[in-house]
Design a protein that fits this description.
alpha/beta, 4-stranded antiparallel sheet, binds adenosine-5'-diphosphate, binds magnesium ion, transmembrane transporter activity
Length: 227
């Protein structure tokens, strides 16, 4: 039987008093790679924010990993986020410290204590994204694609049950986008579940997968035409 990591029933998503998405129903099972597409302003980021507790779920039912989004308390949010790996368009690395120290900061903030275990984990995640030799560098010494690979490594630190990537290739040129996408594909093949918002249709064609579309304040699954 497949394991459900995300289930939404009749969810409505608001930004302030404005209805962004309504009647959202969907299930994501462990191991899936799912795209969330739709034009700018269609609600992709609002959707993601609801999943990581940045926007409250006030209407409908939502379960993500082990959390009920409807009854989620402020104090639960950091624990929910430890079970998620979140990747943003703009990387969000701390500019004042090396890559290793960026990752160390996250481990310490999430309760890790033993230095040898932390070092091993940092090496493991940097290796997964092909950045093992660059841990000593500062973010500004890396290209955009490299910074995003580090951000993906950071998302992997606490072995997330679901990775939410909001336009992870949005700031990258097409070739670099493909490199970042290859990393995400490999991570998915190793068993991780990924939900990725994008409006990069070239990537969708190159790496076809289950696709949800935000349009007209609804979310529905679209069937991709083969190329
Ligand atoms: N912080 C905010 N406050 C008020 N409205 C917002 C906010 N963020 C987004 N919106 C509105 O919500 C709608 C969906 O935006 P968003 O979820 O960012 O879409 P996308 O990520 O697909 O571009 C848009 O109409 C946008 O203007
Ligand atoms: Mg967005």
């Amino acid at each position: 039987m497949s394991e459900v990591v995300l289930e939404l029933n009749e969810v409505a998503i608001y930004q302030k008093d404005n209805l962004v998405l309504s009647e959202v129903n969907l299930t994501i099972n462990k191991g899936e790679f799912v795209y969330l597409i739709g034009k700018t302003g269609s609600g992709k980021s609002s959707f993601m924010k609801t999943l990581y507790g940045d926007l409250p779920l006030t209407k409908g039912e939502g379960k993500i990993v082990d959390y009920d989004l409807k009854t989620l308390k402020e104090k639960d949010i950091p624990y929910l986020r430890r079970k998620l790996g979140i990747v943003f368009q703009d990387f969000k690395l701390l500019p004042d410290r090396s890559i290793n120290d960026n990752l160390l900061f996250v481990l310490k903030a999430t309760g890790w204590k033993e230095k040898p275990k932390m070092t091993a984990k940092i090496n493991e995640v940097l290796d997964k994204v092909g950045m093992k030799t660059k841990g000593f560098k500062f973010p500004h010494e890396l290209s955009g694609g490299e910074q995003q690979r580090v951000a993906i490594a950071r998302a992997l630190l606490n072995d997330p049950e679901l990775i939410l990537a909001d336009e992870p290739t949005g700031n990258l040129d097409p070739q670099t986008s493909v490199e970042v996408m290859k990393v995400l594909q490999e991570i998915n093949k190793s068993g991780r579940t990924i939900l990725m918002a994008t409006h990069d249709y070239a990537l969708l064609l190159k790496y076809p997968s289950k696709t949800l579309k935000c349009d007209g304040s609804k979310v529905f699954e679209v069937v991709q035409k083969s190329v």
